[in-house]
Amino acid sequence: MKAKTLILLAIMTAVLLLTPTLPALQETASNDNDKQLVIITYPSFEKNLEALKTHKETHGISTQIITTKEIYKGTYFSSQGRDKQEQIKYFIKNAKENWNTTDILIVGNYWRVPIRIIYLESDTGGVYEETHYASDLYYADLYNEDYSFASWDTNNNQIYGEWPWPENAEQLDHMDLTPDINVGRLACINNKEVQTVVDKIITYETQTYGSEWFSNFVLVGGDTFEPEYENGTDYSEGEIACEHAKNLMSTFTPLTCYASEDTITADHIKTALNTGAGFAYFMGHGSPRTFATHYNTPPYNWTEDFDQQQITSLSNNYKLPVLMIGGCHNSHITTTPLNFIKGLLTKGPFYFITLGDGFPDYYKYDWLRETWSWVFVKHDNGGAIATIGSIGYGWVDTGDENHDGIPDVIQGSDGWFETHFFDLYHNYNITTLGDLYSQTLTDYINMFPPNEDRYDAKVLSTHLLLGDPTLKIGGYPQ
Question: What is the model's pTM?
Answer without folding.
Answer: 0.92
